[in-house]
Amino acid sequence: MAQRRKKKVAVVQCYGGCTAKEKATLKERRGNCEQILAFYPLGESDTSECRWGCLGGGSCVEACRLGAVRINSRGIAEIDREKCVGCGLCVKACPRKLIRLTSPEFNIYPACVNEDPGAQTRKECETGCIACGICVKNCPVDAVSIQDNHAVIDEEKCIACGMCAVKCPRGTIRDYNGIFTAREEQV
Amino acid sequence: MKENYCFMVNGIVRSTEVDKPLLRYLRDDLHLHSVKDGCSEGACGTCTIIVDGKAVKSCVLTTKLAAGRSIITTEGLSEAEKEAFVYAFGSKGSVQCGFCIPGMVMAGKALIDRVPDPTEEEIKTALKGNICRCTGYKKIIEGIQLAAAILRGDEKIVEELEKGDEYGVGKKAFRLDVREKVLGYGEYPDDVELENMVYASAVRSKYPRARVLDIHFEKALELPGVLAVLTAEDVPNNKVGHLQQDWDVMIEKGSVTRCVGDAICLVVAETREILEKAKKLIRIDYEELKPVTSIWEARAEDAPKVHSKGNLCQSRHVTRGDAKKAIKESKYVVTQEYSTPFTEHAFLEPECAVAFPYKDGVKVYSTDQGVYDTRHEISIMLGWDPERIVVENKLVGGGFGGKEDVSAQHIAALAALKVNCPVKVVFSRQESINFHPKRHAMEGTFTLACDENGIFTGLDCEIYFDTGAYASLCGPVLERACTHSVGPYCYQNTDIRGFGYYTNNPPAGAFRGFGVCQSEFALESNINLLAEKVGISPWEIRYRNAIEPGKVLPNGQIADCSTALKETLLAVKDAYESNPGRAGIACAMKNAGVGVGLPDKGRAKLIVRDGKVELYSAASDIGQGCATVFVQMVAETTGLGRDMIRNMGANSEVAPDSGTTSGSRQTLITGEAVRMASADLDRDLKEAGGDLGKLEGKEYFAEFFDPTDKLGADVPNPKSHVAYGFATHVVILDDEGRVKEVYAAHDSGKVVNPVAIQGQIEGGVLMGLGYALTEDFPLKKGVPQAKYGTLGLMRSTQIPDIHAIYVEKDELLPFAYGAKGIGEIATIPTAPAVQGAYYAMDQILRTRLPMENTYYSKKQKAVR
Q: At what angle do helices B79-92 and B138-152 cross, to 10 degrees?
């Protein structure tokens, strides 16, 4: 029996719930992520926009040679795992380091890397991780932990049961298969 | 207006207004019992179903989240799929206790639908979320590969195999219970539904050691649907226990609890939901006391007494020759301390029982290792004549020793008699972990000596067992630890002292290996150290000392003609020697049969009825396959095919007592009784010209008993046990320290079922690997800290290549066609072999289990 190579796929760790983004001038934005960052320097500015999430500028879309990445209706990058081969070009292209590679069997992932305290995140984003720890408590295999104010899944231990995604009160932890949580295009 | 959740289940549109775990909806509302409840935590995978093409755990998904989706359970497979999986799993030996199997089938189907020709790696990945505690996964992976091939049209179903016209000893017999277990219609107690059935559950202690000051249950009683709350006052005799009756059914007001598994009161309610609510309304006032949490604390002079007679539960002194003198005069001596942990059985099916008033007493549907044992314990509790209690085993979803004591059965009986209707008691997974006896934790000091040629001269050891809150089987387990600490060799000077102490930890009792896993780990490690001193290889020192027919074991028993330890050593010699610095080796022996002078009897009755042979023998098949083995014995003796023989199961009302499924005894002890009864039937059958119809209504009963000598019997060569099985395991590591291969060579006498024995060996080896490397049972002041998912059970993606080898000699014992047991021994030599392999690799002696500083422990740490 032929051994197939174990495939890797990219996953975007943001679900685009930033409340400021709608208020801000999404439509006025031009160019890719680097250009957006140049025009709207965040972080030290007084804007309340999340400093961690997807900019929606599509640098990853540009980088992908297989058309596996698109900017969805929530204004964030989304990967098509059927097309993705896990080359990692989008990972390099993302200025916010939001994209990582994983194995396809890990369909459950926390879609947030926000390092701000929970209270601030709650103000800034509808779906951002507030580090409440409900996922940690409910994980049957102790695979979830809170690191830098957001949930992190240890894939050495994770069995992708989906318990954390079901229990997450914020909808931060997503199921790529769209069963435990709805997928964007299904909404 | 309430929301309506609508979805498709097996092609039928269903809807519900209740938002609850889909597992509960499928089982309770739709009665789809193939969807098993193994943990309800997302950890075990027994409830796996397919949702929109993906394998999903139904305990995690809710009816609300399932809205609009299409769901398939095993019941909803196509006919072709059903037949493919039944045949594939049956012919490959994928099924043992069967509790994980429907979940495995669904995980397999989801993969096959996506990838029609899956690789081994892909199957392992697909099964990662599904625990199997019996098989070691290998046979399940092979089963899924074959099912895929059949569904692709590359392989064909051979119908004769399941039909079983050729079903005798040594034949590739298709297990009796494959079909019902694969398709999920076989009944475990939790699948039983009776009219007017209600539910009961115990409120258990919050603290391992606390005085129960008061129990407030008035509010619970007021809740509509609550039928009764029972306390110790409602129990006729508040003590049960397998051998020693020291286990309180419930802790009475004013008394002190002994572990967190202790029941304080028992609530009976109309539904599961009301029961859960009622339990939360019960308030118990405690005076928390400092618990006794270790052997050393229990031994302290001022230690609180866990039981009134003191903390020493059992002790044994096994001695022969003059160990002190022999060791003193020996050229090489090794003394080393060892420590092994509690181990949780983690059988996939949590304890469950259904009891109901029956005739002039009570009947219990049980999942246990001996229906007569359960009957005995209930009769003690009720103060009744045992005959008034009937215990019938349903399918048993794994036991491994953990279902020898009563758990749910006695409280179900108590509740049923109180409310006068059928009562189901089912343990939650955490309740199961907190309640049932574990493998004993051991602290021991072992001294082994040898001469200049590496020939063993004497053994001195002191073994301390933590038996937790109750005795359970502490006596015999400690005794086996002592008697088997000598190993399968032939020196004659031993001095072995064993002590079992009560503590406030969860109780410890029987677990596959029965004390021998602990003591042989220590012994085999010492042997490696002696080999180093002598300057010979670990293989060589074992071969030089190995027992052989006619030689005398360290306990004085003369090894019988079937003894084949040397053959097992030779079978793995190449594997061991071709992997220098990466291989470890260990031997083991394990008794088959209870032995030591006890009346260990096998009984069987055959009745010819409706033109078929009905086999009655109350011997629990806990997944190891003895029910099939017995039918094979009948087939071998009479020449009848499988379809002419029916095994009527373990039911104390109709089947004679054939002892506990313990001590690797069923194949040999009950097997011989079955063979004897079959021989009588065969004689009549021959007289009748082979026409079974002429024997209609005839009965054939047989009892087998081969006497043994009790421990310390004053005879030159006491016979401790009817038989011993022998084994040698070789474990090979890769350069990173991962277990790459295991060669497991076994002498179990005549092999009755070649597929089943491989499954027993592979499963035993994987359990042994877990014991060595990943499984632990951490306690914090007597309270278990592990959940099912964090016990460290090996998953499909972690398994090495396990080679199950059995050596069959021509010289065999005159019982049961020469078969000896395989049940326990397969777990014993694995851990010391792993330890030896690590020692060969880095010269670090690891004396604690699970071993520290290994590939596996580093993985655990790195992620923390």
A: 140
Taking residue B646's Cβ as centre, other Cβ atoms within 10 Å add up to: 18
Residue A1 falls within a domain, yes or no? no
The domain total for chain A is 2
Residue linked to tokens 């009479």: B638
Looking at the fold, whether A100 and A20 belong to one and the same domain comes out as: yes
Please check whether residues A137 and A160 belong to one and the same domain: yes
Whole-model pTM?
A: 0.95
Q: State how far the alpha carbon of B394 is from the alpha carbons of B431, B623, B652, B666, in Å.
A: 21, 12, 12, 18
Q: Is residue A145 part of a domain?
A: yes
- Model confidence over B267-318: pLDDT tens digits? 999 999 999 999 999 999 999 999 999 999 999 999 999 999 999 999 999 9
Distance CA B111, CA B124 (A): 11
CATH value at residue A13: 3.30.70.20
CB-nearest to B42 from A1, A6, A161 is: A161
Taking the CA atoms of residue B802, residue A158, residue B854 and residue B794 in that order, the dihedral angle to the nearest 10 degrees is: -30
A123 and A96, same domain (yes or no): no
| Contact flag A159-B787 (C-beta cutoff 8 Å) | no
Q: CA-based angle B490:B492:B497, to the nearest 5? A: 110
One domain for residues A36 and A113: no
- Residue A35 — very low, low, confident or very high, per pLDDT cuts 50/70/90? confident
Interatomic CA distance for residues B451 and B433, integer angstroms: 46
* Residue A72 included in any domain: yes
Taking CB atoms and an 8 Å cutoff, what residues of chain B touch A163?
Answer: 41-42, 60
Closest to B789 (Cβ–Cβ): which among A2, A140, A177? A140
CA distance B795 to B839: 25
Q: How far apart are CA B364 and CA B374, in angstroms?
A: 9
Nearest C-alpha in A relative to B58: A161
Q: Give all strands (DSSP E) within B305-351, no chain letters.
A: 312-320, 332-340
State pLDDT tens for residues B26-84: 999 999 999 999 999 999 999 999 999 999 999 999 999 999 999 999 999 999 999 99
Do A29 and A87 lie in one domain? The reply is yes
Range of the domain at A160: 107-187
Q: Which residue of A has its CA nearest to B39?
A: A140
- CB B669, CB B704: distance < 8 Å: yes
Exposed e or buried b for every residue in B325-343, given b needs 16+ CB within 10 A? ebbeebebbbebebebbbb
- Helix then strand then coil, in percent of chain B rounded to 5, is 35, 25, 45
A-chain residues near B120 (CB < 8 A):
1
Instruction: Tell me the two tokens of residue A2.
Output: 């032929």
CA–CA gap between residue B390 and residue B653 (Å, rounded)? 6
Minimal Cβ distance to A166: which of B41, B62, B122: B62
Give a yes or no: residue A155 inside a domain. yes
Pairing of strands B210-216, B70-72: unpaired
Is A28 in the same domain as A81?
yes
